[in-house]
């Protein structure tokens, strides 16, 4: 009888230990670190595996490498990252995906078109001729789809999600926006103002879109269309990277209006237009009750 009681006591202790370990793993900041680690591991594995697959042309190599990264990161998110935390959640479900993605693509294109139109009226954006579509597919993958997928998954799907769970929506919006701007300081032609502009216009806009829908489809659509429109359609450098677009253009005038070599993202036009859209998204999220309080207040 004593042996049975001892076994029961050890079983309870083991169960308690597992429960304690689970509480540690589910703690928002611990779940965040695990998710970031899985993301980096998946991206690195996809990069190495995709680069090792033998193909005959540079274009095919680009397709294979990016497709491999995309597939492995997506599987890692679905099978592991989305299952982490005390309240597991998949922000890339099929529900309303086409609606959110389509709306994001439309919004992203229109916002960039508005920034270009404002720059043209101010005689900062000048057309110098027609381009062509020779770089269309390469730009679609490398400048639109992959940055939108990889960056939104990391900044909104991982960082925003668990910072919000721990410190609330306002802290998550501020921290992820600042980090998003900061990583762009390493882009070609970047300045501290361009990073500030990215943090405010893109960080608030994409974070607000995520807050509003609790889905990654809307911010991914906005991000992809914004990049594709400015580069491949209007021929404007994408975050400092020159592209070959359907139109050939030249940016002239004061850097605060032309963005210099970084492009229109580092101008007052994009800053005001995109930030206004972001504030509107956040306002709608507040009205819908999508603001999360810090964990110590809940």
What can you tell me about this protein's structure?
The chain has helices at residues 2-26, 28-52, 58-79, 97-121, 136-167, 169-183, 192-213, 217-233, 255-258, 268-287, and strands spanning 125-130, 247-251. Strands 1-2 form a two-stranded antiparallel sheet. By secondary structure, the chain is mainly alpha-helical.
Topology:
Blueprint: H1 2-26, H2 28-52, H3 58-79, H4 97-121, E1 125-130, H5 136-167, H6 169-183, H7 192-213, H8 217-233, E2 247-251, H9 255-258, H10 268-287
Antiparallel strand pairs: 1-2
Helix pairs in contact: 2-3, 2-5, 3-5, 4-8, 4-10, 5-6, 5-8, 6-7, 7-8, 7-10
What is the topology, as strand order, of the major beta sheet?
1-2
- How far is the first residue's CA from the last residue's CA? 45 Å
How does the major sheet shape up? 2 strands, antiparallel
Strand content: under 5%
Percent of residues in helices: 55-70%
What series of H and E elements makes up the topology?
HHHHEHHHHEHH
Quick take:
The chain is mainly alpha-helical and 298 residues long. Helices cover 69% and strands 4% of the residues.
Features:
single chain
